[in-house]
Amino acid sequence: MRLEGTVALVTGSSKGIGKAIALTLAQQGVRVVLSYHERESHAQQAREEFSRAGFDHLLVQGNLVDPGNAERLVQHTVEHFGQLDILVNNLERGGWPIIHGDLHPAQWDLEVDTTLKSKFLCYRAAQPYLRQRPQGCVLNIASIAARTGRRQLYGQIFADAYAAASAGVITLTQNWAREMAPHVRVNCLMLGLIETRHGPHTLGWRTLSEDTRTTIVQQTPLQRLGTLDDVATAALFLIRDAAFMTGQTLVLDGGISLVM
Hints:
Blueprint: E1 7-10, H1 16-27, E2 31-36, H2 40-53, E3 57-61, H3 67-81, E4 86-89, H4 97-100, H5 105-131, E5 136-143, H6 145-148, H7 160-180, E6 184-191, H8 203-207, H9 210-219, H10 228-241, E7 249-252
């Protein structure tokens, strides 16, 4: 897929993984729309970073579990840039059982709505515009929680709702790939523990015992956790290079799923 001059909407992109993917796309000449809900300070930092680099971008606020906000986000994108070629469904929420304790109904709704429902709403709003482009692309971000569940040490990291929602993302990826073929590709990037998502840069990781953290790294075949560069590189491959790939899930977990 030729990226220069295309337009990408990346949800949950004022920081962390979403911002890393958006920056990587912008470096390829993509005009990017970044979305955020809260944390105005993170949004301001992202705005300044993209502006300093001279990247053509738009920053839009909104809670994407609300259908109206998802529709407005897509509409802002098309009104500002005139098109939409790429949707990166990055937004998610995974509460740590070690922090939140037993899952209660409100927490269940929050995790499923943010991780799964928001992706459906953004896809539904973006679908007609993606179909208009010669090479539309959707990239859904999911978690290895869909495979590990709360098995072994991961019972302290992944809640049931988050694991179930991540599994749902994989199913939606397959369904949407069938629905959007042949002109729009839809793939999924399934992430293991990444430095800013269930990794060292999070409160949950610091809450784990040192022995637990050491064990998790040691039992990972590649003996480390993932970086933002790892994620952005894999995302770029799925968006730009995987022209004959749709409906698939690429696992980026350092090999942990091989030994679980």
